[in-house]
Amino acid sequence: MPDRPLALFAMTPENVPQIFPPEVLARLRDAVEIDPTLVVEDFTDPRVRDALAEAEILITGWGCPRIDETVLDAAPKLRAVLHAAGSVKGLTAPAVWERGLVVSSAAGANALPVAEYTLAMILLAGKDLFAHRDRFRAQRAFPYGEIVQGVGNFGRRVGVVGASRIGRRLIELLRPFDLRVSLADPYVTEAEAAALGVPLLPLDDLLRTSDIVTVHAPQTPETHHLIGRRELALMPTGSVLINTARGALLDHDALIDELRADRLGAILDVTDPEPLPADSPLFDLPNAFITPHLAGSQGNEVARLGLTVAEEAERLLSGRELAHGIDQTALERTA
Length: 335
Fold this sequence. Notes:
Layout (H helix, E strand, L loop, with lengths): L6 E4 L5 H4 L2 H10 L7 E2 L8 H6 L2 E4 L8 H6 L5 E4 L10 H5 L3 E4 L1 H20 L2 H11 L16 E6 L3 H10 L4 E6 L5 H7 L6 H6 L3 E4 L13 H6 L5 E4 L8 H9 L4 E4 L19 E3 L11 H16 L18
Parallel strand pairs: 1-2, 1-3, 3-4, 4-5, 6-7, 6-8, 8-9, 9-10, 10-11
């Protein structure tokens, strides 16, 4: 067997056995030489100096220190960064790209559970399930046999804001259902939207014509409070806003006003700030459903991130194109 390149874990040590359970770690070790007990939390730690000097591949994850020029000087053989998490924007200094390193991210693998969470919430919101659960809990009775008006997912209008990895995966998951899905994204062309099978609308039009709006745009200076007071006012009375992207994309004060007026509903897995202060009215408003940043990879789902990295290592070492390689030019408009 040819010599395997030396790889080095750089993340919070507790994450390694979760992201790389035994079967996934074994597959990674078939491709690279790596010590799961040697995990970098600080690139200046003398205990990792020798390994860093010989490493050709960094396997990074949550808790990895920033990879800057000093790190690269200490790792002259480094040629690839395979990230077992989402965004690499805060992880990679310009020197990473200037020196021609290959960078890959498991963001696509992390997109799936977020899309699944959003799909579930869309279907539950279409049934107005949370309000009916609360009413049933309070009254301990319901009019048996009566058709409930104003609910249902037949022809429900769903607006997707952002054709990110998650937004695109969600659109795929929504196809089997009798929903009318539209998309708003300034970077997507009509032809690209047609390939996704959805009409492309300006954001204002999408907000005016959707029963459920779900946000999947990246957090950038341009998208801060993308959905603000003016945008919320465009949404039809009774519609629902879902956010699994970043809390800062929404103006929470404006949203709280709409919720207090009982005009809209909201399902929020992310907030600004995060976590919310204990006295936030969002916890108590009956038309707000708040979850603690659970949509992304959790529990056994994080092993999918490790498997993605193992597969990328196999592609890299066989000379194939990476499936999840990162293009530096696209970083500015991604999360």
